[in-house]
Amino acid sequence: MRLPIAGCGGSKIRMHIMIIFLKCLFFIFSHSSTDLFLNFVTTKSKSKSRPSKKQRALEILSILKRLYPDATCSLDYVTTVQLLVATILSAQCTDERVNKVTPALFAKFPDAPSLAGADREELENLIRSTGFYRNKAKNIQGACHKIVTEFDNKVPQTMSELLQLPGVARKTANVVLAHGYGILEGVTVDTHVKRISKRLGLTKNDNPLKIERDLMRVLPQPDWENYSIRIIYHGRAVCKARKPNCDKCQLALLCPSVKAEG
User: Fold this and answer.
1) What is the CB-side half-sphere exposure of residue 134 using CA atoms within 13 A?
2) For residue 57, what pLDDT is reported?
3) pLDDT of residue 247
4) How far apart are CA 149 and CA 151, in angstroms?
5) Are 225 and 188 in contact (CB under 8 A)?
């Protein structure tokens, strides 16, 4: 039941209540607006001061090019078939070790027909020190046989055809296409590229294919292989797996892992 407020006193009370109500509204509105404004300004300032992942990737690439201007594929080969074989051998093995094995291997079996027809035991003995030699010998002979019988004795020049060869996944195919034919189909993801790209915050993935796609989004296509080769050099020289030398790393200011550990 509503009680009447009589006379002048009732009007004053209503006025007083109205004033309090308006003050409350003003207080709420002014503080909410201020908070919204501050949040807007803070968000804007952060977005301006923090470079995007793509911007950081381009800065990283620029520094890597300056640090390793002459970086190139470190495997020794003469022909595209030899590049393919050397890359297959490099799985779970250093390029340095592969380069110690291939001179004798290619002197004995220099091309696809000779490798395809090689005695399996002799081939295994020649590549034994690269590890997983039985499986590698099987894949090398299988790939070379397919090259001879299905590709007119020529290493394929497309990703889809290369992936048909035994022992060839995207990493090997990217290396062969980039260094054998100058074709850039993707980013070569080896252990160095996988580890350091994640450390640099350019990917959060562990799957090589997903890492490759992440890197392809932030790097210009002409530099896809440039990035991989230089990251490999950087991994060997500075950002080592067990003990990265962050104090001397020229990518430190762009590396969230350094800041997180600091």
Assistant:
1) 0
2) 97
3) 94
4) 6
5) yes
Q: Which amino acid is at 68?
A: Y
Residues 6 or more apart whose Cβ sits within 8 Å of residue 120: 137, 138, 141
Task: State how far the Cα of 76 lies from the Cα of 79, in Å rounded to an integer.
Answer: 10
Q: Are the CB atoms for 153 and 147 separated by under 8 Å?
A: yes
CB 197, CB 190: distance < 8 Å: no
Question: Among this protein's residues, is 100 annotated catalytic?
Answer: no
Q: Is 4 helix (H, G, I), strand (E, B) or coil?
A: coil
pLDDT at 220: 97
Domain boundaries, the chain: 80-237
Phi, psi of 93 (to 5 degrees): -155, 150
Are 155 and 80 within 8 A, CB to CB?
yes
171 is catalytic: yes
The rounded average pLDDT for each run of 10 residues, N- to C-terminus, in the chain (262 residues) is 51 68 58 49 51 94 97 96 98 96 98 98 98 98 98 98 98 98 97 96 97 98 97 96 93 86 51
Catalytic-role residue among 95, 136, 146, 171 = 171
Q: Residue 50 has what pLDDT?
A: 74
Tell me which fold the domain 80-237 belongs to. Answer: Endonuclease III; domain 1 (1.10.340)
Whether 227 contacts 219, CB under 8 Å: yes
Tell me, yes or no, if the pTM score tops 0.90.
no
- Rounded CA gap, 105 and 101, in Å? 6
Q: Which of 95, 136, 146, 190 is catalytic?
A: 190
